[in-house]
Amino acid sequence: MRLDIFSVGLALGYLLGQGMADEVDDLAARGLENRRAYDAEVGGERTCTLENAAVRKEWNALADNEKREYIDAVLCLQKLEPIWPQTEVPGVRSRFDDFVALHIVQTPTVHGTANFLGWHRYYMWQYEQALRNECGYTGYQPYWNWATYADDPLSNPMFDGSDLSLSGNGAPTDHGDVTIAPGLVVPSGTGGGCVTSGPFVNMSVNLGPMAPIMPNIQPNGDGLSHNPRCLSRDISAVVSQSLTKTSDIVELITTKEDILSFQNYMQGDIASGFLGVHGGGHYTISGDPAGDFYVSPGDPAFYFHHSQIDRVWWIWQNLDPANRLHVVAGGTSMFGPSTRNGTVDDPTDLGYLGEAYRLGDLLSTTDGPFCYIYG
Ligand SMILES: *[C@@H]1O[C@H](CO)[C@@H](O)[C@H](O)[C@H]1NC(C)=O
Ligand SMILES: *[C@@H]1O[C@H](CO)[C@@H](O)[C@H](O)[C@H]1NC(C)=O
Ligand SMILES: [Cu+2]
After folding, report:
1. Is the distance from the beta carbon of residue 202 to the nearest atom of ligand 1 less than 6 Å?
2. Quick one: 133 exposed, middle or buried, by C-beta within 10 A (0-12, 13-18, 19+)?
3. Where is the signal peptide (predicted)?
4. Which of 103, 106, 156, 219 could form a disulfide with 149 if both were Cys (CB 3.0 to 4.6 A apart)?
């Protein structure tokens, strides 16, 4: 593999920040090189380039003061007034909750669908914008490389419960096995109760549950009424060991050639008991609301998981931009066969949280509203 100076710089930055680069980082560097060649070939005037784009980093590559600033911005978002009227969503109490509400409402039309990746890219970007524009954060949304600590996710400093973590595991509770879907049960982890330390120890989860998987958590109607409770987690090494190792990510990126195979393998097939890296990250955290398909963004760790989902897609796109940068495939509803397939011309509507963009304008991280890459 040939490495240019930029990739070497990225890899070096990663090495310094994290101790080691993995095979996915190598694919990311190769993708960037491809992408640079592709952009040059396409030509034209670009305002956003690979050189001036913002760089989203792995959480553990951030300096302590950068972590502090990020955490403070999330706590700030949790204190700002919502823009979504309570006449429509009675449970919203903050700008943070606006994002949870949107995910609850739109879940059936943005998962297992043609817009799954593009919608989440746009949604995550609006969250990052809110942190920056409304809470003074000067960095970008960090990602969680699941693989680095897939053997033992609780050893990730991100979940060590310190002031510079995203809080840790939930308190040990005597709950049973966790039923993700009928016939898909994972053994109880060592937590399950409220998180006991770290920045989000006092956080109020206001919306949901809607589709809880923990035996000790009950659903609450449409999930939109006010139901304040603690943030709980049941971090699972069983899930990360089986689904989010480096080899799992590499297989996804290197063996799926078309967008439909890629996104299907990424999201797994619950009916056959395979969760893919997408379900893998969600159910590694588990608990309430992280394990709830609808309410999962109510755990601040959601945005780290979905940044990594977005990064894996970005890497896959960059490895063959000509064929992968402008394509979507799949239906328009998570339930049953779709009455129609999605297209690049479909509007991607975030309601109160952002203007509608054509799906086709949300497929490149350096076009449309976006200007970022992953480092
Ligand atoms: C949580 O609340 C307790 C009691 O009010 C307070 O002492 C503590 O500092 C708070 N912790 C955080 C991280 O906000
Ligand atoms: C959606 O696309 C798939 C694959 O191209 C095709 O088999 C299917 O018939 C399409 N569904 C509809 C409703 O058009
Ligand atoms: Cu989602």
Report:
1. yes
2. exposed
3. 1-21
4. 156
d(CA 150, CA 240): 5
Q: What is the 338 CA–ligand 2 centroid distance (Å)?
A: 8
Tokens standing for residue 275: 């969760």
Q: Give pLDDT tens digits for 82-103.
A: 999 999 999 999 999 999 999 9
- CB of 194 closer than 6 A to ligand 1? no
Rounded to whole angstroms, how far apart are CA atoms 267 and 111?
A: 9
Helix, strand or coil for residue 334?
coil
Give the type of residue at 338.
Answer: S
| pLDDT band, residue 366 (cuts 50/70/90) | very high
Regarding pTM above 0.85, the answer is yes
Structural domains for the chain: 5-374 (1.10.1280.10)
Neighbours of 58 (CB within 10 A): 23
